[in-house]
């Protein structure tokens, strides 16, 4: 099966009350860990590449690795550009064979966001590619951009209908309290997503797929593993998994996870070096890292997303 768009995945996810996992990929072991988990549990998946990942690996390698994963697993896999920052970046990915792109003009004024999103949609749709757009601003770090908590803003439900109608986008990322990175909520506070905003967005856009960025849950076992093996991470708090599960049962069809994979990989490698200080064969420390990514993704598929068994 060639790489697919997310259209069918989202339609079934919306109707079935579950979400598709969108996992960020940067190298072979991450791609293998994710897709081996999906294969074992027969789950459709979105593998997403940020501008930074594309710069790190170059524009060819990640596409070829994702194609290899598709050949090995036979699963429906969507190759998505995460946080495209311009028409040119989106066009370049579309021309390279991505099946989905995000244009993130959420930091721009409403009219400008509409204009640039519309331009990407026209090019993408002419090439059979789908487009995710964003309204509202998440706090945290994405590529080189750091948005402080004060500068973040929830999505205004009264804007979503006009935005979707005028842009023609295929899915919409909204801000309801998630944020990028490992430090999402102040230590000592109780994380709570704004389900009232999600409900209102869903009411105004019935049947339309909604996307949640910044949806890592920051597993404490891996923060601990990092800190017990030479790391020094301050208190890191993620999005509670039961709240993500609830969002997945509503209009949220795509849940973005990157930081949790980074924590699993880094914690595992730190522990490996602590336990085997004389080893220097990359395969020896990448193998357990890949295995732990696989276990983590299996847990997400079953307990958070609910998309296990949903690949055709
Ligand atoms: O939202 C951002 C993703 O976590 C990607 O991060 O730009 O460092 O690859 P990155
Ligand atoms: P996390 O940092 O919570 O993993 O979010 C990833 C993301 O939104 C990628 O676009
Ligand atoms: Zn994001």
Written overview of the protein:
An eight-stranded parallel barrel has the order 1-2-3-4-5-8-9-10, surrounded by ten helices. It has a two-stranded antiparallel sheet with strand order 6-7. It starts with 6 loop residues before the first helix and ends in a 7-residue tail after the last helix. It has helices spanning 7-16, 28-41, 51-57, 61-73, 87-96, 110-126, 157-167, 195-204, 220-227, 241-249, 259-275, 282-305, and strands at 20-24, 45-50, 77-84, 100-103, 130-135, 140-142, 145-147, 171-174, 210-212, 252-257. It has a single domain, classed as Aldolase class I (TIM Barrel). α6 (110-126) links the parallel β4 and β5. α2 packs across α12. The protein is globular. The mean pLDDT is 96. By secondary structure, it is of the alpha/beta class. The protein has twelve helices and ten strands. The structure holds glyceraldehyde-3-phosphate, 1,3-dihydroxyacetonephosphate and zinc ion. Glyceraldehyde-3-phosphate is lined by residues 24, 50, 52-53, 82-83, 142-143, 180, 258.
Which properties best describe this structure?
binds zinc ion; 12 helices; single chain; 312 residues; 8-stranded parallel barrel; globular; binds glyceraldehyde-3-phosphate; TIM Barrel; alpha/beta; binds 1,3-dihydroxyacetonephosphate
Do you know the CATH architecture? Alpha-Beta Barrel
Q: How would you state the average pLDDT, rounded?
A: 96
Number of helices: 12
DSSP summary, beta strand count: 10
Class from secondary-structure proportions: alpha/beta
End-to-end CA span: 11 Å
Any low-confidence stretches, pLDDT <50, length ≥5?
Answer: none
Shape: globular
């Amino acid at each position: 099966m060639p790489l697919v768009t997310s259209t069918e995945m989202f339609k079934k996810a919306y109707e079935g009350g579950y979400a598709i996992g969108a996992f960020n990929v940067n190298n072979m072991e991450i791609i293998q860990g994710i897709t081996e988990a999906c294969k074992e549990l027969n789950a459709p998946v979105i593998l997403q590449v940020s501008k930074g990942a594309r710069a790190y690996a170059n524009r060819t390698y990640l596409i070829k690795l994702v194609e290899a994963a598709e050949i090995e697993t036979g699963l429906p896999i969507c190759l998505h550009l995460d946080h495209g920052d311009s028409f040119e970046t989106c066009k370049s990915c579309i021309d390279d064979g991505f099946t989905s792109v995000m244009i993130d003009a959420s930091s721009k004024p409403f009219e400008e966001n509409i204009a640039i999103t519309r331009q990407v949609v026209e090019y993408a749709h002419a090439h059979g590619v789908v487009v995710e757009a964003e309204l509202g601003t998440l706090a945290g770090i994405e590529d080189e951009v750091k948005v402080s908590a004060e500068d973040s803003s929830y999505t205004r439900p009264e804007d979503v209908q006009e935005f979707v109608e005028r842009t023609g986008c295929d899915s919409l990322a909204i801000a309801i309290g998630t944020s990028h990175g490992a430090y999402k909520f102040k230590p000592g506070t109780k994380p709570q997503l704004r389900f009232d905003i999600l409900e209102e967005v869903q009411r105004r856009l019935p049947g339309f797929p909604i996307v949640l960025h910044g949806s890592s849950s920051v597993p404490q076992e891996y923060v601990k593993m990092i800190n017990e093996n030479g790391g020094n991470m301050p208190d890191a708090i993620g999005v509670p998994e039961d709240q993500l599960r609830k969002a997945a049962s509503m209009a949220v069809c795509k849940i973005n996870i990157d930081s949790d994979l980074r924590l699993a990989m880094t914690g595992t490698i730190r522990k490996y070096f602590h336990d085997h200080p004389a080893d220097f064969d990359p395969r020896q420390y990448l193998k357990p890292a890949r295995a732990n990514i696989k276990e983590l993704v299996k847990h997400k598929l079953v307990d958070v997303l609910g998309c296990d068994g949903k690949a055709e």
